[in-house]
Automatic annotation (TrEMBL):
Domain Rieske: 71-168
One of the Pfam families matching this protein, by short name: Rieske
Lineage top rank: taxon: Bacteria
Matching InterPro entries: Rieske_2Fe-2S, Rieske_2Fe-2S_sf, Rieske_Fe-S_prot, TAT_signal
Annotated TM spans: none
Keywords per UniProt: 2Fe-2S, Disulfide bond, Iron, Iron-sulfur, Metal-binding
Protein name: Rieske 2Fe-2S domain-containing protein
Organism: Mesobacillus maritimus
Amino acid sequence: MSEDKKNKNHPDNDQDMMKLVDNLNRKEDVNLNRRAFLKASFGTTVALGLATTPFGVMSAIGNDKEDAERIEIATADELAVGEAKNFNYPTEDEPAVLVRTPDDQYVAYNNKCTHLQCPVFYEHKDNVLLCPCHKGYFDVNSGHPIAGPPQRELPKILLEVKDGKVFAVGREYRHG
Ligand code: FES
């Protein structure tokens, strides 16, 4: 018989194992683990609550303003009343449309349709933003969907007109 097998079957080894098991205070271990788990859970809940509070407040008031770079997108006289111009904002991958409305206001929106992302165009004739893919219509003054499949507003680009220039200064997501 090998030395290993001898040791495994030796009664002293069994005794040692039993002592080891007896030495483990299982109740204390379980309590310690439960306490640690509850502390960790509480900490995580508080951290998540604090981290998401601003989003909850934003969503409760219906606005989700995004700080973005201020960039010049047009000169004030570049567009005649009733004309539109495409630009990208806040990044080069996010197309947008600037409209000088018939009542001489500047408005701008990201122009990916909120239905299935087709580009939205300004229709001067009807003074609406139109998505030709499935005939989705958006109100030019608010960006709200008014007809067709889209259910959500277009993200609004916040503008500032100063010194004969039109600047994009931020973006606002509206919910509902
Ligand atoms: S993608 Fe615009 S209406 Fe469908």
